[in-house]
Design goal:
It comes from Arthrobacter sedimenti. The chain is an alpha/beta fold and 257 residues long. It has one domain: P-loop containing nucleotide triphosphate hydrolases (Rossmann fold), CATH 3.40.50.300. The chain is built from 12 helices and 10 strands. Helix 4 packs parallel to helix 7 and helix 7 runs parallel beside helix 8. The longest helix is centred in the C-terminal third of the chain and has 14 residues. The protein is globular. The C terminus is likely disordered. Bound molecules: adenosine-5'-diphosphate (ADP) and magnesium ion. The site of magnesium ion has 4 residues, from helix 2.
Amino acid sequence: MSTAAEHRPAEAAPILRVEGLSARIAGQQVVEDVSFTVPATGITALLGRNGVGKTSTIKAIIGLIDRTGVVELAGERIEKEATFKIIQRGVGYVPEDREVFSGLTVAENLRLAERDASPRRQLVEELFPDLLARAGQMAGTLSGGQQQMVSLARALLNTNKILLVDEPTKGLAPKIVGEVADTLAEAAKTVPILLVEQNLHVVRQLAEGAVVLSGGRVVHTGRALDFLDDAGLIHRHLGVSTDAASHGDPVEKGAAL
Ligand SMILES: Nc1ncnc2c1ncn2[C@@H]1O[C@H](COP(=O)(O)OP(=O)(O)O)[C@@H](O)[C@H]1O
Ligand SMILES: [Mg+2]
């Protein structure tokens, strides 16, 4: 007789695998022996308090900071490659401070981001109708939420194997947070996303998996909802109460929301 394990469908190969990733910045160990995988579909959240190494982990993956360990994209080792090669392989990076070219128009910002021979302009126009209407506006005069949309649109113009999106809702008004989250949900139908996100309401809405960091190390991995529903884990690793996890209300100023 066969066992239940034999009947389990084979796990789809992850799009990104990180194994024993370590990185130092200015002599300080900021990423330490980090291992996790990102599935080939949906959104995986990278969580943790401020300063635990989320941004550094993303930068280490694409080689923006020196690191040791294994990084595998779609089954191929990439950790020896230069950043531009990793990006060319299909890694879209939306950095924390949503840098746009302030003195260029929205249309110019988008055109500059086109890397592929056939950029996905139609997808971007569908996902960001507001940007289409503002094509001629200087990006520096956009609101924070609109600049975030430009930043996401720039990454979505190209066909990527994965997007690395760092704190896209940081500092945005609640209504705009919802709009950015809805856009990410739509984007995730076309590309898997590793998402750094402090707003647990957004994590609950979007993420299937969660990887939690503390002090540069992975302290928890699993289903996002299992983590969000575990008051003890939330409190231990993020320093917020369960209420915050369900409603997205800040508990400790500057803590996790
Ligand atoms: N450019 C830098 N110079 C010195 N220390 C840095 C630099 N960038 C990050 N760090 C330190 O590395 C640690 C991890 O930072 P970071 O990856 O930005 O955390 P997170 O994104 O989780 O908030 C922190 O202690 C931070 O102070
Ligand atoms: Mg960060």
